[in-house]
Each structure stands twice: as structure tokens, then as C-alpha cells.
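look at this fold:
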Amino acid sequence: MAKLTILLADNSMDKFYHGLVLAIGGKSLNWDVKFFVTSQAVILFTKEMKGKSKLKMGFFARLFISFQMKRMNIPDTSKLLIEAIKEGVEFYVDEAGLKLAGFSKSDLLDGIKLSDTISFLEEAKTSDVVVTL
């Protein structure tokens, strides 16, 4: 079975969205998919954020993009995250990054596991495809 490992270090909506799309795509191909999260992106996997990310642009541009996504029936990141978890994508949040952001394991969404740098490197070493965002 092919294996895809994704590393997300940025909390921008476009990178998060594309990472989730790649993860779901990998699962649809019956690949083993591991999604590692570090740095600023750890907050996206907390109960406070619930997988919601914001576009890094002005108010009117964000409003326009949000309108277009709804008009074209493109799901937002929180819905894609729920779908990815249901499809069996394994999500791992960097424990050190989580602590630096002021959160603990109990703040994580259900189904999200803690990890560290070594875990990511071991997975990346044995993966067929590694994507960093």
C-alpha cells in the first residue's frame, strides 16, 4: 500500500485546505495517510478553532472568497477535517508546538493524537510521497 505523509506548519486557510484535499485524495486511492501538524498550525486542531482557518487577506477579499466557496459548493476546512477523520486519515499534532501555543492534549479535537519530530521523520522516511505545506 502506498503511503502519504503530510506536514503542515502554517495556519493559513489555503495550505490547510490543500493539505486536507490531498489527505482525502490519498485515502480515496486507498493509501495510508498520516498528517503531521506543527508550529502555527497546531491551533487549527483545538476545540477552540474546530478546524476553522482564516484567509490571510483583507476583509472584502475574504468575504468575496467565502461567498464564492459557498456559491460553488466548496466545503470549508472544518467540514473537510471531519471528512478526513471519518475516512481514516491519521492526524498528529506536535506536542511541543501545542504547549508553545498555550494548549494541552485535552484541548485537541477528538481523534487527534500527539507526536514529536522523531515520529514525523520516521514516517517520512518510509513514505512514498511527502508533502510539506
